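Run log // design_07
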């Protein structure tokens, strides 16, 4: 069978791999049933559904004819690097790295760092827009996670709150 849409084919494979990984990972937790769901129930069902979507997209890529075959373009390394790096920096800001002596910088600093680094992934970078976006995200995150959900993680740098 010939691949008629490369983009859909590889997207479907990616969905299937991610779905299978989530479903498999969920088996390490208590699954339960629909009436008494355990912590692994939702990730298992979600993983299965994602794998099924991937199977459908992959099948469609093999059956439905496209004009140009929808070839996969060149790999976008710059956006990939900055998006992954921004998430790593955010994680470090939230938890710090105690073994290296890096203190937790908190949610607010983490959101600003995440937003600024991720904005470098795009074609254009406007500091004013990034500052506004980071501020809005910081306010919404504070209200949602700290005020409403009452989650317990650092909001400000640990050296400021002692």
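design_07 sequence
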């Amino acid at each position: 069978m010939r691949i008629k849409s490369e983009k859909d084919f590889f997207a479907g494979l990616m969905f299937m791999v991610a779905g299978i990984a989530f479903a498999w990972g969920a088996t390490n937790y208590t699954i339960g049933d629909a009436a008494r769901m355990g912590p692994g129930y939702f990730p298992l069902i979600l993983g299965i559904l994602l794998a099924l979507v991937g199977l459908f997209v992959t099948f469609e890529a093999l059956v439905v004819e496209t004009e140009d075959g929808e070839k996969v373009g060149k790999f976008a390394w710059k956006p990939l690097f900055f998006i992954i790096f921004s998430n790593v920096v955010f994680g470090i800001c939230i938890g710090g790295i105690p073994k290296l002596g890096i203190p937790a910088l908190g949610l607010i600093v983490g959101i600003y760092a995440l937003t600024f680094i991720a904005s470098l992934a795009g074609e254009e970078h406007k500091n004013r827009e990034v500052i506004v976006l980071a501020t809005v995200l910081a306010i919404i995150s504070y209200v949602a996670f700290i005020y409403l959900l009452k989650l317990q993680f650092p909001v400000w740098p640990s050296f400021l709150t002692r």
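The chain has five helices and no strands.
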